[in-house]
């Protein structure tokens, strides 16, 4: 993680569109209720999920390549830590991402370093709801 705690609020204020990598259709999972929370607080939420769904009224794409580049600047990831290297590779291949946010319980130091070396701001093992409640 290369974003200090003191920059989290500014980071969230600077990006009003969040692409959620792995936005679930299961309302009981954090990968669903965290995006709902952030949408209800004023952020525009776009999701990726391999299976088509319309739960929550989100715009859902099957993968990142389908999402316009300008909407991929801030990517919030809900994937297991062992999948982060392939997520980072996909993000780097597509370009345009400025912030990689790995939700609470998710981290992969080597993949995070690779993203950081490419100029991406990385936040890991942090929940958007917790951070929102702390700073807003």
UniProtKB/TrEMBL annotation:
Ranges of residues in domain CoA-binding: 11-106
Protein name: CoA-binding protein
């Amino acid at each position: 993680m290369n974003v200090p705690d003191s920059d989290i609020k500014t980071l969230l204020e600077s990006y009003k569109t969040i692409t959620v990598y792995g936005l679930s259709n299961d309302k009981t999972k954090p990968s669903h209720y965290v995006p709902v929370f952030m949408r209800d607080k004023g952020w525009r939420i776009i999701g990726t999920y391999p299976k088509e769904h319309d739960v929550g009224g989100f715009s859902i794409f099957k993968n990142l390549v389908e999402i316009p580049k300008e909407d991929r600047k801030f990517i919030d990831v809900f994937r297991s830590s062992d999948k982060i290297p392939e997520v980072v590779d996909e993000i780097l291949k597509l370009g345009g991402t400025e912030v990689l946010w790995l939700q609470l319980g998710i981290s992969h130091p080597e993949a995070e370093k690779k993203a950081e070396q490419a100029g991406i701001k990385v936040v890991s093992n942090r929940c958007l709801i917790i951070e929102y409640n702390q700073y807003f």
